[in-house]
Amino acid sequence: MASKSEPTIEEKQRSREQARNEGDFLKADALKAELLESHGFLVKDFADGSSELYKPTTQIVLEGPTIMNLAHSALGAATVEEVNGISAQVIDRIERLGDGFSIELSGSKPSDAMFWFGMSGCTNDMLFDVLAQKVREEIARMLLKESTREVDILRILEKVSACNVHDDDLFKSIENDLYYSHPRSLIWLFRFGSRGRNMKQFKRNVLRHVGETTSDSEDAVSESEDTASESEDNTIDYNNLFENNSLPLIIDCGCGYGTTMIGLKTGGYMYDGYNMLGVDFSENAICYANGIRTRESFNGVRFVCADIFEALEKIKDNYAGVVKAALVQFPTPFKLEGGGNTQLPEEDDGFMVSERLWNGLWEVNCEKVLVQSNVEDVFLNMVKSGCGSGYEIIDNDEKKMVGMPFDYSVGGFEGLSKKELRITSRAERWLEMGGGSGGERAKVRNEERYLPIEGLTETEANCILKGVPVFREVFRIVGSK
Ligand SMILES: C[S@@+](CC[C@H](N)C(=O)[O-])C[C@H]1O[C@@H](n2cnc3c(N)ncnc32)[C@H](O)[C@@H]1O
Fold this sequence. Notes:
It catalyses: guanosine(46) in tRNA + S-adenosyl-L-methionine = N(7)-methylguanosine(46) in tRNA + S-adenosyl-L-homocysteine. The chain is α/β, with parallel strands linked by helices. Helix content is 44%, strand content 10%.
């Protein structure tokens, strides 16, 4: 029963109508959740701004796959058209469930569903809008419960942000400043990607999560692997990659989820006079990047699923403009002698930043190369191969020279990680090796970034949050080899 100071049900209904009519949806959702949780009333809104309260009758149970089942199947879909078709089914189902949507989308589920659609490269804006609304309603409900922790809400919003969805009303519900390139958003991509190395296992876990363990779904898992079975490269027209193929080009080699270019674009670093190309042979990662690129209608940005060596060949023969800069950010390390992760490629067979890569960059006359790694010996190895293959390290002043698109350094990690930088077990092993094959130290360059913080990658986000040191250098091409 309402206490004397507590507003009556009618007063709450009127306040909600007022909040809604004034566009304060966060307050309106909170009152809606309160009317349901504390008084058992659902609200029906009318176009004229009024509303009606009613008691829920029997819960609607719909036939067919649940929303979470559908979101999961989007992850295994073969084409964007298929993903968008599935997203339309989700919108329809949410509509039919009406106020009973919580049966299928309670707590963090709307954000999980959104994240899975983001990862599958969905380009249906409406799906993201509808799910954002459900996230908002669920957060309003969660905030009424004393047991809800701030971190629960934060996790939900981080996943929303990782889909590049900006909903001011949503983000108002927390004090933390979240945006697409924030390490706490990008860390979800890193986690997904790390599991994605064993995509079969990840998808099995998802199946378990949504309670689907039929042999059919197991088959679906084994059919969809992460890396492109056949390079898409032959079908890409490098003559017409961009609207204006003669602008200077920046290439992100092994771009992963393409967060650098997405972040620079959405963060207001338009680099209008440049084209930006992200290349990665992970189909999943490129699918995600292309989903956002399409939803945001970016000009001058392309992501292609291809082997970087083939891509550089094609660029050499077909791209009309100059290659201004290349980014080589956190390449998958090679195996270090004497143990460690046996899944890693051999140093001279499968490691991306071999002499072959430097030669490829040299052949396209790439002016500058930014190299970053969190693995000390890998970084030293890249410096060595770069300096032996037509490139040299630029000293500090020249790094900032005009004409380099990334011509400034911005202030390090302030406010992002209070953790002490730590030495990894691989670095320890490298130091123990000493002598000719190990022990050399690289200078840590955490404080100097050559890209704005908005250009963060998912791996660097992980380094920031874990306090892992990052090594960076900028190279320039030397006239001849
Ligand atoms: C550790 S991830 C780093 C991704 C991203 N640059 C970052 O900093 O988070 C390395 C990426 O390089 C890609 N890669 C490795 N060899 C490649 C090659 N030859 N061509 C294209 N991509 C490659 C992998 O698919 C993977 O996405």
